[in-house]
Amino acid sequence: MSEDLFQGYKGKALETLKKFKVNVWDDAEIESTGGHFSGKILPRAENTNENHLVLKLSTGYNIGIHIETITKISGTNHPQPTFKIPEKVFPYTQGLPHVKLLGTGGTIASRLDYRTGAVIPAFAPGELYGAVPELADICNLETEKIFAVFSENMGPQQYIALAKKIGEEIEKGIDGIVIGHGTDTLQHTGAALSFMCQNLPIPVILVGSQRSSDRPSSDAALNLMHAMTAAAHGNIAEVMICMFGPTSDEYGFLHKGTRVRKMHSSYRSTFRTIGDTPLARVTRQGVFPIKTHYNIRRNDRNVNIIPTFDDRVSMLYYHPGMKADVLDSLIEKGYKGIIWVGTGLGHINKEMYPAVERAHAAGLHQYMTLQTIWGYVNMFVYDTGRDMMAKGIIPAGNMLPEVALIKLGWALGQTDDPKEVKRLMLTPINDEITLREPYNGYLVYQGGVPEVEEFIKKVHK
Amino acid sequence: MLENQIKTHIVKSKTPRENYELSKKNIGYVDRSKATQFDYDRIGFMSGLEVHQQLATKEKLFCRCPAGIYQNKEEYDAEILRHMRPTLSELGEYDRTALMEFKTKKNILYRISNKTACTYDIDDTPPFPINPEALQYALEIALVSKFNIVGEVHITRKQYLDGSIPAGFQRTAILGIEGTIPLKNKNIRLIQLSIEEDSCREVSDLAHTRIYRTDRLGIPLIETVTYPDMSNPDEVMEACNYIRFLNRSTGKVRTGIGAGRQDVNVSCKGGTRIEIKGVAHTKWIPELTHVECFRQWALLAIREKLLTRTKKINWKISYIELNPNDFLFDYLPITQAIERNEKIYAVNLPYFGDILSHFTQPGKAFYDEFTHRLKVIACIERPNMTCNEDLDELLDKDIFQKIQTILHAQTQDAQIIFWAPEEDVKTALDVIEERALMAFDGVPEETRKSFNDGTSIFERVLPGADRMYPDTDSSPIPLDKNWIEKIKLSIPNHVSERYIQFKVWKIPEDCYHYLFTHNYYPLIHRIIQDFDLPPKYIGVFFGQKLKHLHGKYQNINFDINRLYDLFAFLKKESIEICIADKLLKLMFLHPTKDFNSLLNTLPFQKTQKEAILGKIDSIKASFNPRRKNTHKFDKINSIMGQLQPMSIGNIKLSELAKYIINTVE
Fold this sequence. Notes:
- The complex is a heterodimer.
- By secondary structure, chain A is of the alpha/beta class.
- Chain A is built from eleven helices and 23 strands.
- Chain B has four domains: 2-28 and 312-439, Gyrase A, domain 2 (2-Layer Sandwich), CATH 3.30.1360.30; 42-304, no CATH class; 493-576, no CATH class; 609-664.
- In chain B, helix 15 (521-531) packs parallel to helix 17 (562-572).
């Protein structure tokens, strides 16, 4: 008896169901002091109160009925429905490139079960073809689910497994790789894979969606088509993140995995390249490079996989009034590397100095990045900056804080030697530090300015 | 062969117009003015309503944008482009028509004004908690409608693929189920009352681009759904009026154009529940429901006719592209299409002879069912087609004869010619074949758009019967029992009780519609109670005099609450209320003047009753009859006439008349 007849119901509600001998999924007639209700008993969501029974009416609406008002329930037994997306064979097209889709756990495509409201993920090629039939015009697709974790639970272990998998697939001769991924930590995985998979001969595209694929306005299908197009037909062989350019359904951007950041909690066009332009625009028609220099697709299979990571690294986001004991506890717990996220050009207060010295003496590798997100660390402008460098904090140029954290973990996975770590950290692998910041690398325009408003009105947002 | 000859004989003996008239007669169409309950019972008239009413809240339902501020078509700050992708249906397959529409790629553009829309409206931010003001107003109305109130509100998503909501679904939730409203002769059962967000307003829909404004989007709305209990068109209107009056009786709803709209569901015996969307005026309902019911009746007759000729299975169209040089087209839309480099296609519909010109609605024949689908699904602007049975016979018969030869058409077949941009031709052919195949099944499921002449056209395909699923962005809202009890205390009495009260007050029935529409009951009630005034006079004052001036001075923004102040003033100054009629007009003309100044404008002078009555004798004495045999009433009238101006407001005219009559007699 593994089947749960009372999914999610607790306390009084559970007692009531048992008392009237009805289960979840039953069609029920309910008498209550508030009148008569009939519908299908649905499972109760976790973390909701114990006082209500959820009913799906024949009109498709759900309602909750307060347990204490219920005087009688009579039900017709119904077994738990089973859901499956009918698979259709993903058509093979001679001449189209082969793309491998690796699943990490996020929902790439899905279908709805209207009887229950459940969202059923689609992942196998046949299922995906059913959900986004346009994919068959782009490539020949293979899929493999390698983990089932939410974006926020992705970590070093998964980075290493993904990097190794990418190496294997390249060796096997695939033309492009797409990785489905939740969007919250897309940039971390993007950075990790950029460092772990060097000298790529083919595109490796990370893709997610900001709106789940069960809604008609979802960005999932278009993002997936863009990613597949870039992986199958694009000429840029780098680790890239492929997400909406504008919030409109118009084009996507290909961002370098090392220079990209999620900038809005919910917008479709949330990913932005920081301090530079994106690599390219992508539409269903193809990839249109914006940058002139990039790693070009090759036919050889000479990828360099360096799947190392030491997770004893952390990040300190400096704030006025920060106490030294925060850092001391990291020293005490045996951390090996700290990414500072400093104010302005890269500053922390004097109160921290003794702790910074203690950390340095204990062998912790400390690097400075910026809360401003845009711009370079410059610790020469003020004396305090020079003081900090003297105490062991190394400026990390215009490396993004999250990228610096990932890179430090990756570097410490290879060596403890401060000089070698510093060399690895400050030698850019794929523009995580750039030598120059172009003027169009920093564009945060403000609304209300007439010429900005004019632009917004003219160009689809 | 013999069979063919017989058909030939039937098909070709009439003009399209004659066939239209004959088929209209054959299905037993009667004008509404002549229709009786017997006619409606004969075709199984059945109708239900979904009455939408905006709530008068300050803010929208799921975001904190102001509600009720509207923008002009060209007034916007940004545009956003979206496509609506059909999601998989229950069986894991796309609805055929929905997919067809998706493949033609409709670009949906949203015009956003910063004042009225935010990132929630365009689905770039998850919903904020439900607007508590809206929830309370909706619950009040649910309680007045005697619904069973739910214990917990579950926000549900209802899918829309037409783009009218940027998310592709509307957030909606049931507040109550199973209510009733009383009509004059029967009770109508109510299925449910839900609270939901309003949709965008359409700016235009041309070829592949549909443009919406997002100002109305998200305004809280309630939807009251009835069972299909109405069995004739007048009952549908009566029920609709009742629900609207009931909504208004709470004083918590928006009024004005578009604030209340209804979807009317109609079916005939053997037909399909067809939803006529967005009917703005209740007075259109009787004609609309009448016509739609007969349209379905006609479609069923067409089905029977087709099935006697052939089977649905294996039925298909044949078609050919026409070279414009081979034909002498002189119909302007076609010659213009040729100039635009569009393609012209001829389609043969086997066994559809006499069907295309079959009556469906007054002035419309079966082929009209194709043209609007070509517009909506294949995005081809109208006029987009004609046929060999066009009532207006737009093309020369020779053209069709030539086409019939090319397509090897049989005499019992019918032909459509359509013109379209090349990229839309495939969808157009699919649309024509699909609609023709649907004719074998009777009445296709669709939503329809209404016109004020009572006819309707195809509007959208239904996105499948099941399109509801829980909103994962919001959690259930338990309704506190005490809160509900508290709301119960503040709800108004039922419209039917007010109706009875009006009767008791002897207010004439022709006033009721106006009084209910504007929800004047509470104000009338207060005036009568607070100042102890005759109910009938106040009822007529509102229901006739105010109504007349409202109509006459439509552009004047009249503050209705001043009427309470008016009667308060008259009471305080002990002025007879009959002067209110005269003051009312002046209040419209001089909205800012106070009552004393208005009295001076009249002019009015306060005079003691005795002083007026004292003048009767002297006037009587000076009465100079023009004729010898003057009747005594002439004398009475003469005195009355002279005293009336100074009497209004000082003495009741009926009282004055009594005194004069006594004096004269």
